[in-house]
């Protein structure tokens, strides 16, 4: 691998799946770093963030729903 190839795989690369998931999770809590936010807005594809964001929102809703059902069942309601 030449120096040109290694420099292209660094900051010039679009965020991968796990970087996208981490960025969306950080944005849920409002703790996204400036460096990652810059990378996301310049190199990321909006559709990827939308899909991951919707999936994580659905997962969050399902976890809350399951917790409420468990609590109600435990309370005998």
TrEMBL record:
InterPro entries associated with the record: DUF2970 (IPR021344)
Superkingdom per UniProt: Bacteria
Pfam families on file: DUF2970
Record field: transmembrane: 16-34, 46-68
This protein's UniProt keywords: Membrane, Transmembrane, Transmembrane helix
UniProt keyword Transmembrane, yes or no: yes
Protein name listed in UniProt: DUF2970 family protein
Organism: Sinimarinibacterium flocculans
């Amino acid at each position: 691998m030449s120096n040109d190839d290694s420099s292209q795989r660094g900051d010039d690369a679009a965020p991968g799946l796990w970087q996208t998931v981490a960025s969306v999770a950080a944005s849920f809590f409002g703790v996204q770093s400036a460096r990652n936010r810059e990378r996301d807005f310049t190199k990321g594809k909006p559709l990827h963030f939308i899909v991951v964001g919707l999936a994580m929102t659905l997962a969050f809703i399902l976890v809350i729903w399951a917790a409420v059902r468990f609590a109600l069942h435990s309370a005998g309601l």
